[in-house]
Amino acid sequence: MTQQAPDTIDPDVRFLLANERTLLAWIRTAVTLQAGGLAVTQLAASAVFGQIFGAIALLLGAWAGAIGYRRFRAVERAIRNQRLPPAGRSPALLIAAIVVLALVLFVLVAVGAW
Hints:
single chain; 114 residues; mainly alpha; 3 helices; elongated
């Protein structure tokens, strides 16, 4: 029995489609963060905090899109090589950054600084 090259392997199309749906979820998240960031920059009561937190949300949205694409490519390679994809830390770091941003915003609103 001969081993096929990774490019000639016919993966189950359901895995490829699931990977594409996951990429679309990352893109939705990225666009939502960016839209929220833009809204905060335009509608915030405090111009200084609005600009800062809006810019942070815009950057987090860009980061989410980049993470999604990197994960999509890594999983695509793993599927075609018939192995599990690497775990990666970027999604956890993004979630941590969003939680920290939310907590800071909550504290600012709670103390009346916003």
